[in-house]
Amino acid sequence: MKIFLAQQNYHIGDFEANTHKILAAIEEAKRQNGDLIVFSELAVCGYPPRDFLEFEDFIEESMRSVHKIKEAADTIGVLVGAPCRNPMKSGKNLFNSAYLLYEQEIIGIVHKTLLPNYDIFDEYRYFEPAFEWNVLTFKGIKLAVTICEDIWDLVDDPMYRRHPMDELIKHGPELMINLSASPFDYIHADGRKGTVKKNVQKYQIPMVYCNTIGSQTEIVFDGGSLVMNTNGDLVAEMPYFTESMQYVNWVNGRFEEEIVRPAANVPIVKLTPENFEPDKNTGKIHEALLLGISDYFGKMNFTKAVVASSGGIDSAVVLGLACEALGAANVHAILLPSQFSSDHSVSDAMHLSQTLGNPYDILPIKDIFDAFELALKPVFNDRQFNVAEENLQSRIRGALVMALSNKFGYILLNTSNKSELATGYGTLYGDMAGGLGVIGDLYKQQVYALARYINRGGEIIPVNIIDKAPSAELRPNQKDSDSLPDYGILDPILYQYIERRQGPKEIVAMGYDPALVARILKMVNANEYKRNQFCPIIRVSPKAFGIGRRVPIVGKYLS
């Protein structure tokens, strides 16, 4: 049996485009005499559809698309993900399902059992879990079909039902097929193959694993679909961060293809690493952010971006990524120097844009700032310069770049990093403005690592930007270290608290100063109100700010 895997990038709710893409893959597989083609989880409607699932016409349109795909499944079997109505009077109205289509009929439907309800996932809000389990027989071969449930073999939580494979294995399946929508993060990237390996070794049957790719606002799906034999050897592995289609031949109970990688070289990774590693998987982070930017613009029909370019590391990395993702001609840099900006910051920012080839303008803000100070003078009553004046500069810059956004249809790309967002080192309605947070899930040390990666083939980001001490330049001789601990200390503590969910006692036990830990954690919790008003952030870590981290604004914990 010739089995195709279609690793595709879908647009949530764009049934016409999704169906066209699925049909095109089916026709190509038929042209190559394929027997079965496998698509990813909820491919018909796109994943995650969230509250779109609560609209009846959304479900009706999804079903119309399934029936249209069914008509193309004449000489080939099609395994595709889509919502399915629950005919029972109890429970949720929908299942998250996989449809097996053949000879222009629906010959089988499988429902997802283990519905994730953590981090960015909230499937129990919409779907009823499966309550019966049967293999699907296709061309005489018994298939154990699961839906993104490969990950659950590593989850030890009594609230979840047993793994569906524990039931399906009783029916003697020959092959596991998994339809997945497994998002990227720089830790999960190492563990996915190991998780599939653990499944095939546990159940002693091979697996065909089809993952989606593409970015859906903040979530990036990286693909990497694969086929693994019973020993855990990789028979096929598809590209990351790109659409692709590949086939394998299943003959007499085995795959005919050459082994890509032996089982001994596929590690099983379960937990978030104990220690912060700022250089971990920088290349994959780079690819994920490029996809996040390009899909956000492409799926929203945006074409041009604006970036406030300060001559600092954060804006330099965002500008470099934006130019690579959208084309330099489509990214407008705005330099907004004040009387506190150093000459080298302006020259560094100009040098960067000249190297990248993107258009830029310089709009000094000193006169505007002076006018604001004059207007506020009767109220401020000659009080000492402090954070009010510092934030005023940031808000002037925010107003100017948003004016350009409105006038020319630019989307403002935010340049705040995770260290700043965690500690509140940013100004609401100023440097926290934007339509998309590009590096908001990268700690400052990771931003530096990404800058070095961008320069891997030659200097793009000026070395001076990378080497100089970071500063917001909102007052004379200001440095980030005036307000924040050194990033070499700050970032690991933030990582323990945010990614690993370690409390103050556990972090102090690692050897950190108790007063410093208390200060940092207090900053994180006191600034949730700021993050709650922030734009979507491209997610590259296992615990990003936004929908995956739900912390009360008025919480008392460590406040």
How would you sum up this structure, described in words?
The chain is α/β, with parallel strands linked by helices. Helix content is 35%, strand content 18%. The chain contains 16 helices and 20 strands. The strands form four sheets. Strands 5-4-3-2-1-14-15 form a seven-stranded mixed β-sheet, with helices on one face. A six-stranded mixed β-sheet has the order 6-7-8-9-12-13.
How would you concisely characterize the structure shown here?
This protein has helices spanning 15-31, 56-72, 164-168, 188-203, 282-299, 313-326, 343-356, 366-380, 387-408, 418-423, 444-454, 463-467, 487-498, 504-509, 514-526, 528-531, and strands spanning 2-7, 36-38, 77-85, 94-102, 105-111, 136-138, 141-147, 175-180, 207-211, 213-216, 219-222, 226-228, 234-237, 244-251, 254-255, 305-308, 331-335, 360-362, 411-414, 436-437. The protein has 559 residues and is an alpha/beta fold. It starts with a strand and ends in a 28-residue tail after the last helix.
